[in-house]
Amino acid sequence: MAWLYLLIAAAFEAAWTFCLKFMKFSDLKALRWNSVLSLQYGLPVWLPFLGYILFGIGNIYFFSLSIKSVPTAVAYAVWTAVTLILIKIVEMTFLGERLSYMEIFFMLLIMTGVLGLKFYGPQVK
Fold it and tell me: Which residue windows are transmembrane per the record (predicted)?
């Protein structure tokens, strides 16, 4: 179950990262009370801030659950690697970014390390 919590934490971290990408502090300053609930002006401004808070809390919660069973260093390494791969998958799928052979090679190295930590690392309690 701890590994599942780790994967969920990584997914929340990836979502949190994209919330940061779409946050615009300048638009938040320009937001007025009468336009906060507007779908055209308010929602695109405060939705990334809301996601930032919710995904951040979810990330912390699930990561804290996972490190109760998985050694912290292993959990952090896996969490970081899975987050990186999820971010790249989202960038390719939704943002139209390309993937080079070198990126594929290095991501395979990361996945090899994650699988090595999973199967040959310290035993989960």
Answer: 41-62, 74-95, 101-120
What is the Cβ-side half-sphere exposure of residue 65, based on CA atoms within 13 angstroms? 15
State the virtual CA torsion across 113, 4, 60, 28 in degrees, nearest 10.
90
Write the DSSP symbol of residue 124.
P
The three-state secondary structure class of 45 is helix
What are the domain boundaries of the chain?
Answer: 1-120
Q: What is the mean pLDDT of each run of 10 residues along the chain (125 residues)?
A: 92 94 80 72 82 94 92 88 91 89 89 82 66
Contact between 90 and 14 (Cβ < 8 Å):
yes
